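Please predict the structure of the following assembly.
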Amino acid sequence: MTTEARRILIVDDDADFVAATRAVLVGAGYEVADCTRAADALVRMNEFRPDLLILDVMMETGTAGFHVSYQVRRDPHWAKTPILMVTAIHQTTPLRFSPETDGEYLPVEKLLDKPVPADVLLVEVAHLLEAAD
Amino acid sequence: MKPLTSPDHGPGPFTPDAAGETLGQLAWFVRLRWLAIAGVLVAVPVAWYGLGIRFALVPVLAVAAGLTAYNAFFWLRLRREPQALAPRPDSVLVLARWQIVLDLAALTALLYFAGGIENPFSFYFVFHTVIAAIIFPDRGSLVITTLAFGLYALVVGLDLWGVIPHFPLTGLYAASPHRSAGPVVANLFVFSSTLYIARYFAASIMRRLNRRTGELAEANQKLRAADKRRLQAVIMVAHELRSPAAAAASLLEVLDRAAPEAQPSLVERARKRMDGLLRLINDVLDLHQLELGTAKVETAAVPVAAVVEDAVAEYAALARERDVTVLIDLPSDLPPAQANARYLESAVRNLLSNAIQYNRPGGSAAVSARVRDGWIEVEVADTGIGIPESDLPHVFDIFFRGDEARKTDRLAPGLGLSLVKRLVETQGGTVQVESNAGQGSRFSFTVPIASGPESA
């Protein structure tokens, strides 16, 4: 770990999930910013320059998070930034996907179902940041 | 017994799904024919040896053999390659028609070789006309009945005029009537009227049955669709309940990890989500209890203006977020409504939240109320996405959601408007909607005016 706090951007339209996630991450020493509109995600990334992106799937549209992940990957600055996708989509649609089986189409490192327990979230975040270094 | 459906006259389209059923009908034919053959094989020795009746034994047995042969053919084909026998459903009907014709010819031949008009088995033509009426309740059975009568009349007539040799049935009657015009004409009259009347009764019963079957199938299809919608909606409702519950759980779970100064805001957020959850649960409960008719409704004088103002205050934050201006237009002398306060609040809240939710940035939602025709009319008009004309008849259906509404708010369960309708109607009022797709919607409902002291 570097001495400087690692930066995490949360993109999620549910302000309460943002607040909860933020509380966990800030408590663990991360620097956190958030963005509640998928459409603003890339702008916010360029401002905040995160080391990791926590991304919801359903925002303005049911698949807004997917589009953000494609956008991020196409941008050379962010092509290597790990993305942790969090979603409730497993419960609401028959659509199933995971980075292991859909890696070609879903360019994220990890996918977790909401709500993510705090311990799991911290372990995954630390793991993804470590792997990206 | 299930009817075959004729392609031009049936209650519904003749689909390949019906092919299995029509093939079953052919198997039924084959079984009946085996019975008929067995009947011939029993009747012949009983008549010959038991009753001492004499007739042209060899031709009769030859006809029975022919009957057996073609029935065996159909039986084998049905067992081995039913599809080859009837590649298309309507070819089953063609086949059924020709089988009946063959059977009529076989019965005519049997009668001819065993006394013609003397033979009492001529009554059995009724079976053919009834079966034909079951399978072809319209023209088809009329043609077959006429053919049955024609064949019988031909044999009897040619016999009467001596054109063809008569094969007597000796031992049954003292004297054969086959050369006497009077008995022959009387016989033909009763015979034909029996056939046509039997055919008429059977066909009209079948037509009614087919119509009823079609109606039931349609009703069943509608029920299945409604059931599927309801099931999908249950999943949606569960998700709607899950979202606030999960958010609240997340907020509470992180409490002990959060900085002390952040804790109150997390608790406040969790509390708000739980409030929303509770409201949603109440809506779901109200809706279903109202639908079942188990809710007890107590009404009192409720100030409409206060209800509207509370709802507007409650949705002020959402309206700001969506950049929607909320306008209120309430006359100062608006009388109180005779209503259930919670129902009235819920109706106004649901209409207002829709007007904000399904609006566009910069749009407006206007709530107004007035007295009209002895009722209080509450109206919520918006400048939002509107409702396509084709969806308008369905907007109050439970769990119905229009495509545009789905795009705007993917997860809302489609409870709001059906709840509003039930809430309003339970209080004796009516709900109305006008809308132009893309231009906005105008919902209004009525509630009774509270009977004040001066009118009481």
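Residues 130 and 199 of chain B are 5 Å apart (CA to CA). The first strand of chain B starts at residue 300 and ends at 302.
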